[in-house]
């Protein structure tokens, strides 16, 4: 019995890595890079009346987009609404994630499954659930009315989108936070308390700084998901909430203005790029 | 045992041969049109009778949710079409024609062109009108006690925050703009719909949603909304399914048509059989059958004589004199401007 022949030396020196990376790089190039380049090309075409496309090279779409107050407001609206939703999701998810991080045994498993379980239902179904709950005849508004308070309109406006998206994004935020809580050692907290720090001070000076990587990751994930979310604003916004994703749908599917839809899509990519840059800047500072 | 084996073999061979010959003989025509309730009824009223009469042709119905997606698919297949026929909105068909997707629509395709109403033919569109639909007023019979007779019911303050309107760029919103403009004294909707927009600004605060989902018919049937606008054919079908909860009215001021056209895809795989189907789809018999089934008004003038009075009354056929003649190709030119005005002036007033 002779030993298996050794791998050629060159393979061990990195060619193997290239070979192993090749399939995914190819899939990525065909399935992602090329379509994005094609999309970018479309944003320089001209749309004809009624949905036709003229193959030219023009900056019209970009100039039109950047000089039209409606679209500038649309971009700003999308960014700030997504930021606000991300922040709210963080505030409501953080205590849950921290509790889960500290829990142990089967109780922890049970709670984790509970947190993840909404992901097993499609966002469309959950959104319809929220419509039933928040509509003017629904239980929430009825309960507020029963208390004798002025009933707010919670559905088919920005409030509905806000509530729906926050709930839908919570599992992602909680999972990202838990993944980033690795550095939080209970002994450090104990040490702080032993040295006389109040619970609030322990949280501010010890827990929060140690969990910042998780917070940054969760915020990046939720922001990207919020900016690109389309079903929930479409179903719960009542046609009053204009966001980038819903506008891309309208331009691509209803108005058939593919060049403008492509321009807006590239703009979303630029927003994502900015978010990623901010995330890595935060990470660098943390290190 | 051997005998049985042989019998099985012979049986299988016969089956294989039968399958092979039927596959070889049958020509498959792929038709794309709206999915859902349209598909259900069109297959029943037109596709199945056609296949019965032409056993050598199989028509495969490839449903898509809207005309834009049909155009997108046809565009993607431009170099090697898989679809032979498309039924889509006339303004989208214009874009498809401009891009060279449709073959010319003439007497070599169908013998029925001369019998079609003039509104079914558009210059510059390689497709012929196959269904007429019109905008109607929808109401929930529990919430609206007395059947409304006028579009003005939408502005009735007692239905505040209970009005459901599919807004522009959906063409239901565009059609409402044109009707409202005419009611408010507008004379030429291509030049200006200012009078209509002013009136819609008054409607905005009463609107519950500008984007009813999954469509406008369900929320009104279920009572989530009280009143709204929609297309006649679908409304009639859903009204029958709603246990009397969904009311449908063609208001006294009249309405406007939406037109679906049928087009032959250039270079499709089964063009000859596809022409046969288009000819059948535009025939008085097929047109009458689809009106009986789903209450789209026929585009073939000879069809009306074959349709029952009961079905005809549920279409706009009896109110032709009150219909606004909307030229959708002209509207396409001002559609962006109308959308812009809605978004900047009308919808913000409902926040």
Automatic annotation (TrEMBL), chain A:
The chain crosses the membrane at residues 16-37, 79-100, 112-134, 154-177, 206-231, 264-283. InterPro entries: MetI-like (IPR000515), MetI-like_sf (IPR035906). It is found in: Cell membrane. Keywords: Cell membrane, Membrane, Transmembrane, Transmembrane helix, Transport. The keyword Transcription regulation does not apply. Its main location: membrane. One of its GO terms (biological process) is transmembrane transport. GO terms for cellular component: plasma membrane. Residues 75-279 form the ABC transmembrane type-1 domain. It holds the Pfam family BPD_transp_1. It comes from the Bacteria. It is a multi-pass membrane protein. Belongs to the binding-protein-dependent transport system permease family. CysTW subfamily. PANTHER family: ABC TRANSPORTER PERMEASE PROTEIN, INNER MEMBRANE ABC TRANSPORTER PERMEASE PROTEIN YDCU-RELATED-RELATED. This is Putative spermidine/putrescine transport system permease protein. It comes from Shinella granuli.
UniProtKB/TrEMBL annotation, chain B:
The keyword Signal applies. Transmembrane segments: none annotated. One of its GO terms (cellular component) is outer membrane-bounded periplasmic space. Keywords: Periplasm, Signal. Residues 1-26 form the signal peptide. The keyword Signal applies. GO terms for molecular function: thiamine binding; thiamine pyrophosphate binding. CDD domains: PBP2_polyamine_RpCGA009. GO terms for biological process: thiamine transport. This is Putative spermidine/putrescine transport system substrate-binding protein. The lineage of its organism: Bacteria, Pseudomonadati, Pseudomonadota, Alphaproteobacteria, Hyphomicrobiales.
